[in-house]
């Protein structure tokens, strides 16, 4: 079973859903067969509440929770999907743009575990390639009723390339840790993406310098061209993007008086492209 040191400070607020003050927004989906405990898992994490009453989710629902990691305010938009086949067309439409998935099964239900492979195929089909997935065996409090051995789940998770947890929404076991780990792996992938974007900008810069005079600062048009080419390359990629806009004069490194500072412009351009994150 995977484990993770708690690195998130959570500060829940009733205004989370309307709060626009955040550094990043991550869209997460909880998927799996009906009655595996997806809704209870979400309510335990978002509201620290649990009810044993079973009410099947109709279509899709979501909650918002804001967490803090490394001085960054991260807004989690967590979607709870219906597990029934008749809602499958609706729910798969929400896969696009999701940065992370919790693929859940019930350790007391062999059928829900057998369906994991099909759910994994849907993730691969409908989401972007770098979406992060954690396999969650829910209801580990019902050890006496277990029909899915932990070893089988670990083996399947390794085959699929997923991380694995067993958890319990009722007893609040590993609920917080599962979400924390998912946020962590998304942030790790995000950092890799930012490094890739930095290389992309550097390549365009080198090409531009080869085509421009050796002396004198780069012109505003050349810097704008770098932004345009880089943005087109990123926006045309198969991964969805989340853009944090900055004033154009700030990105280009110009002062209010119109003086150009190429170094500042390059730094802000890299920061801008670094915010073209999967969403």
TrEMBL record:
<dbReference type="GO" id="GO:0006887">
    <property type="term" value="P:exocytosis"/>
</dbReference>
<keyword id="KW-0547">Nucleotide-binding</keyword>
<keyword id="KW-1003">Cell membrane</keyword>
<dbReference type="InterPro" id="IPR001806">
    <property type="entry name" value="Small_GTPase"/>
</dbReference>
<keyword id="KW-0597">Phosphoprotein</keyword>
<comment type="function">
    <text>The small GTPases Rab are key regulators of intracellular membrane trafficking, from the formation of transport vesicles to their fusion with membranes. Rabs cycle between an inactive GDP-bound form and an active GTP-bound form that is able to recruit to membranes different sets of downstream effectors directly responsible for vesicle formation, movement, tethering and fusion. RAB3D may be involved in the insulin-induced exocytosis of GLUT4-containing vesicles in adipocytes.</text>
</comment>
<dbReference type="GO" id="GO:0005886">
    <property type="term" value="C:plasma membrane"/>
</dbReference>
<keyword id="KW-0449">Lipoprotein</keyword>
<keyword id="KW-0460">Magnesium</keyword>
<keyword id="KW-0636">Prenylation</keyword>
<keyword id="KW-0653">Protein transport</keyword>
<dbReference type="GO" id="GO:0046872">
    <property type="term" value="F:metal ion binding"/>
</dbReference>
<keyword id="KW-0342">GTP-binding</keyword>
<keyword id="KW-0813">Transport</keyword>
<protein>
    <recommendedName>
        <fullName>Ras-related protein Rab-3</fullName>
    </recommendedName>
</protein>
<dbReference type="GO" id="GO:0005525">
    <property type="term" value="F:GTP binding"/>
</dbReference>
<keyword id="KW-0479">Metal-binding</keyword>
<keyword id="KW-0472">Membrane</keyword>
<dbReference type="GO" id="GO:0030141">
    <property type="term" value="C:secretory granule"/>
</dbReference>
<keyword id="KW-0268">Exocytosis</keyword>
<dbReference type="InterPro" id="IPR027417">
    <property type="entry name" value="P-loop_NTPase"/>
</dbReference>
<dbReference type="GO" id="GO:0017157">
    <property type="term" value="P:regulation of exocytosis"/>
</dbReference>
<dbReference type="Pfam" id="PF00071">
    <property type="entry name" value="Ras"/>
</dbReference>
<keyword id="KW-0488">Methylation</keyword>
<dbReference type="InterPro" id="IPR037872">
    <property type="entry name" value="Rab3"/>
</dbReference>
<dbReference type="GO" id="GO:0006886">
    <property type="term" value="P:intracellular protein transport"/>
</dbReference>
<dbReference type="GO" id="GO:0003925">
    <property type="term" value="F:G protein activity"/>
</dbReference>
<keyword id="KW-0007">Acetylation</keyword>
<dbReference type="InterPro" id="IPR005225">
    <property type="entry name" value="Small_GTP-bd"/>
</dbReference>
<dbReference type="InterPro" id="IPR050305">
    <property type="entry name" value="Small_GTPase_Rab"/>
</dbReference>
<keyword id="KW-0378">Hydrolase</keyword>
<comment type="similarity">
    <text>Belongs to the small GTPase superfamily. Rab family.</text>
</comment>
